[in-house]
Amino acid sequence: MAADVERDRDDLRSIAIYQKGIMVCILANIIIVGVQFLIPKQLRFALALVALAVTVAEVVFIFLMTTKVYSVGLAVVLGLLTLIPLVGLIMLLIVNGKATSILRRHGIRVGLMGARLADIE
Fold first, then answer.
1. CA distances, 101 to each of 49, 92, 96, 98, 110 (Å)
2. Residue 39 carries which DSSP code?
3. How many helices (H) and strands (E) does the chain have?
């Protein structure tokens, strides 16, 4: 999509919701990395299952957000890149930055955990 596209409120609301999902995934990644050193070895399998669930959520949110702010082709590529551990985190940060710039350009304040949905209604 072109950078100067005017977006309707439903589109902006979707971007804000997907951004919140991406922010939760980023936070979950940080927590998982920290927790892996603190839990006993017997619980690491459970943590790996949680990490797998977070990875699936990352792919979904990256795909949904990228279809809103870029294109479907790029959404597929970024979704696949999200499966690579460190690259996935970088993809989350890049797409989150794009979402933040779109929301701010439309006069919506974006905080630490994304935009307030009440500002979009």
1. 33, 14, 9, 5, 9
2. S
3. 4, 2
* Secondary structure element (H or E) that encloses residue 111, with its range: strand 110-111
Token readout for 65 is 């957000």
pLDDT (tens, 9 = 90+) of the chain, 121 residues, equals 444 466 788 899 999 999 999 999 999 999 999 999 999 999 999 999 999 999 999 999 999 999 999 999 999 999 999 999 889 889 889 999 999 999 999 888 888 888 888 777 7
Q: Are 22 and 120 in contact (CB under 8 A)?
A: no
Place of tokens 């070895």: 41
Identify whether the C-beta of residue 76 lies closer than 8 Å to the C-beta of residue 62: no
- Torsion angle (degrees, nearest 10) of CA 78, 57, 8, 120: -130
For residue 110, list its beta bridge partners: 115
The structure's pTM equals 0.85
